[in-house]
Protein 1
Amino acid sequence: MMTPLLFVGGFLLAALVQLYLPCWPIFGGIKPPVLLSLVLYHALKGSPKTTIWAVAFAVLLQDGLDLNRFGPALLGFPTVALLAHRIQSRIFVDLLLTQMIFGALSAFVAMSVAIVVYTLTGQRPFSFSQNMLRLIGSLVLGMGTFPALMWFSNCVTTVRINKRRRRWL
Amino acid sequence: MFRNKKIIYGAVVAILLIVTFVVPPSFSSRGKHLVCDGVAPMERTASSLGQRISGAGMALRGFGGLAERNRDLSLELVRVQTKLSQLRDIEADNARLRRAFEFREATPHYMIPCNVISRNISGWWHSVRIGKGLTEGIRKNHAVISPDGLVGKTKEVSQHTSEVLLVCDPACKISAKIKRGNIFGLLHGAGTDLRGRPIARLDFIDKDLEIKKGDEVVTSGLTNDDGVSPKGVHIGYVIKAEKDASGLYQYAEVAPSATVSLLDYVFVVTRKNREVKP
């Protein structure tokens, strides 16, 4: 069971990590999708209520801290969360391959939505080559970020369980 | 029950689409400023922690106190460079004054030293966030400089933070000129190359004027009403010059000299008659 403090703290930490991570021009200059991975984590492991809160927090941080107006994350994150939550019971999330596939696909979906929003609103100039780089980059970065986040969350869970066990003993 | 769920989903999708495509940016900017100001203390803590770690690393290597001295020297260097460029302009103006009657004294500029507290969160924009905002006298469209030259300009300013759009961002447009021959043009960002080096483009240059590779590009000092941009601040050097697709103008690709990394400090140029300690 996740406490509200851990829940909010997790999102703030994820935002901070994403802010300080470097971006690589080879991937179209985009950052590893840490906040999106956290949304995906809650969508695949949490209840509908938790997922909604997770989407709300992530959208607020991602779009709120960016220069664009609310939109790319506002549409992209709920789409990913909705799709992931629907198949939650049908997949085994703890398998590394599943995590890699879901991380890559979710980042790809969110990036596609962001490209559409940026192009339609005219906030960023459309460049086919740059956007292709971003889409490929999102696949690679998502594939790496989500398993890393799952590993980290497993570590946190193990520490908390051990702490509770020690208290009982 | 099933129908109710469909209606709720439809309403939520409609609201999200309206917020994304219909609501004007000014409507959401207040909310964004709240988020920025809310996260700023955490960013500042992380930034100062990073500075302390880097300072401790330097102290271990025998460079203790170097960071502070470097910061002071950078501020001094920027002051001297600005003064020098102002003096050069004054010299040129004096020559012109001999032939003219009217002379308007240039508005003095002041610099506010700021720490870079974070980068852009998504990577879609070439921007950094600095730890000072409206409270310290920073406004939108103020030039941001470093000892290496022009960094960019302020885009979004909240109470305690400001988002600086870097020179290489396509949305950053600055009036600039090529120093040799006073050739004016409009500079805008062109992103980065695959090695991550920033590129900018100087557009609308008279097609008959001669531009050479290596020519220095500086700010022209022209801004809109609310903007502040000092004259003669170094931006970078011309790396390529070509004819525009229309054939009416030529453009020059410029390599900006100032690059900003995390834990760096920059100076916001403002009209306000005060300087704030970093």
Protein 2
Amino acid sequence: MQIRCQSCTNHKDFLMPLWVRATFKINEDGTLSILHTKQLESIEEKIVDQGKTNFELTCQDCSGDAKVIFNEYAKLDTQSNEKQALEGL
Amino acid sequence: MTFLCAECGNYTYFECDVQVHRSVKPTKEGLIVEDATFEDFNWSDSNIRDGLEDSVGYALKQSADVLQCNPDTGHYENTLITCARCGSKRVTPPYSKWSPKNYKSVYKEILENREEFKQLRKEKNYYANTLPVLYKP
């Protein structure tokens, strides 16, 4: 699997927003103390939906939309299939 | 006391949903998901703290805006903050600053503080008539 930025050449660092549920305590002096955080969204689902229903995965360098390529060898497979078909003819 | 749960009386422990940015790094072994950091600054941690303080501050200041009437129960529920003890959304500030009995008009308050204001005007410095001075390094 590859992730590439559609605006720049970055393919290493990306950002994804995720909703978390924070359990917190209100102290006597009015300050907040965080006790626990629980992730509410699945990263895998968001990555699969990237480009289909959302563009939440963004480039860390330029904030551009990222493109997820699940099988980078798919194009090579198609090319080799075409080559074999031509050789068969 | 900042918030009070109308169901169980809890005024200490609450829950709130906040959005956090996480760093996603694709590698040969798979995806590495970790906190988003920029040099020494942990952006993910900052997201949680800032988001929490924003939500609590907003719920305190605009308490009427975050309360929504639930037609099934007939109660007003907080859209941002939930009780961590009983899971109820009936979380509100325990008091209101506005009170029909103790209402005082602004005009009346100004009249009451008239002498104090006169004193302040005497103390006030006026710089409006002084000419600007050229900056000398």
